[in-house]
Amino acid sequence: MSEQGLRLHPIIIVENTIRTAIGLLVLIFVAGVPLDIPILAAIAAVALVVLLVFYYRQWKLTFVRFGETDIVVERKTLFKLKKTIPYSRIASVNLNRGVLNRLSGTSKLMVNINSGHNAVRPEASLTFEQHLADRFRNDMSRHIYRGEMPSFEETEQMVRFTTMDVILHGLFSVSTQQTIIGGFFLLNSIVDQYRITVGEADAGPGGTFISLLLFFIFLVLPAVRHMIYYYGFKVHRQGDTIFLEHGLIRTYKTSFRISRINAIRVKNTLASRLLRRSSIEAEVVGIGSDDGSGTTRPLISLLANDAKTQSLLQELVPEFIYERQAEKQPAGARRVLITEGVIASAILIAVAAYPSLLAYDAFSGTGDGIIGALLPYAIPIVTALVVAAIAYSVSVSLKVREVDTGEELFTFVNGILDREAVIMSYDNVQMVHVVRGPLARHFDVSSAQVFLLSSMGKSMISSGLFPEDRLEKIGNIVMERAAAMKH
Amino acid sequence: MDMETSEPTGAETDSYRRLNRKCMLSMYITNGITYTILLAAFILLLIFVPALRESTFSIVTILAAAGMVLLLVYFIVGPRIYYDRYRYMITADKVDVRYGIIILRHILVPIERVHQVEVSRGPVNNMLGLANVNITTAGGVATISYLEIDEAEKIVERLTELINSMLRDRE
Q1: pTM for the complete prediction?
Q2: Do A434 and B106 touch (CB under 8 A)?
Q3: CATH for B12-171 (3.40.50.720, 3.20.20.80, 2.40.110.10, 2.30.29.30)
Q4: Contact between chains at B108 and A116 (C-beta distance less than 8 A)
């Protein structure tokens, strides 16, 4: 290492050039600039050379120094940068390997600090040869965890998920709303194709194709993305650290300490609930990755049956288990929800009445397929569906929403179609709002909003409607525990 | 809601405190400016978009006009209710704010979680000698609004002192 520090691996010149070139191409395509092929090729060649020179210079003048107390990243280009990251502020150091990394034998070291600001992106993303990246990660971990941190390979793997688990997770973890929309477009494309095949309708300009494309966008792509992202999912806990490893094209090795978990979410979609499967997410600060694939809120369990989920909770995060005494929403909440539902439905019907007549006149006898047949009645149908959804959500909300306040942890259970139980520690709550609208005041209930530091920066978790003193208790416990910790 | 209130005596209190009455004037001026801009936009739309005056869109125009009337009522009545309901309290352990016009909110912020405190003043508040105190935690920002500048400065000073002493204790 020179006095100035270490240079990153030159593969980042290629990586940055490709990324910017793709961005420019998309921009030219979206802007619809009419250019001849030779001119376009000449511009592309010049742009490529300029980008390569730019990123070469940036690589040449960027240095990293691993000190005793901090990491310093210094860029001596026109836009100078000197970033000092103290080890004491680092929340996690993770490794990512994309296709280019695999081809060049490198790894990307992602350094995240424990901050809500810029939480979804790492504070520094440093590419080195794989053995160097592993060594730096271990060295940094020694500073962060004040001791040797075991590598992924050395530790005993606690839970293994099969490829079938990954496929089931991909298929059934897509939100129910997306599944319904995707399913509708698939059905529409099938009916369209049938009508074209039997000669009932002419092949329109890409009608079937567009429906099929929307089905892919809403349903297939997210499912496939989840399968690729979580392929080979492994999770284990050693000491106070949780290790995650997954990924098919880009591999992810993530680790974080239990103390960094602000909440645990046990989630299920409508489809996964029918299969009696739930997944577990951890709300952890400082594990952002800048590749943009998948969620940055780490899953510590893919969709698994209830018994496995409970056992994983026990093994991985026993700190978030306590004896729950859940409380359903009281009668006041029922009155509020029903009154709100009736008012919302009445307003919706009143607003939709006149446009429904106009739409019927405008679209009668036009279009093919399900969409074509339903278009004249679209507004009344959508209104009826929304009213039915309101009624359903009121009824389900009364059955599902719960609050539970333990001594160290508390839980909100929420959701209509897709449900989640969020288990939070009082000690990680940043702020509590107790909110009462006019109807809630009349029926003597309130809702609470709890603000936490999260993987996405910050997150707000709302409760259902409960007596005010029940929710004020959360704020009071937070205050008591914060005061006790201070003294 | 029964709450003990007292006149301002310092930045830290054990009882809820109320805002200065000037907060209503600040809100009336801000609301007046906002309403004038919205009304002008509405009238200009009616003048320059003839379709809005046709029978097809009459229902939209009527609804928009009704919305403007409701907004006017809200802008006139709101400041008084806001002033009557606003209470805040700062103790050694927490910041506690209660406010709201239609929806009532009770905000609790443990001093332990406060990262940053700042005073902000818009042009109207500046003219009236008022300021807001923004209390930033890692999970969001809580604001104590329409404080007299001296009071706001005292609160910031006190909160900064509390945070610093807390950080010193940790070291």
Answers
A1: 0.76
A2: yes
A3: 2.30.29.30
A4: no
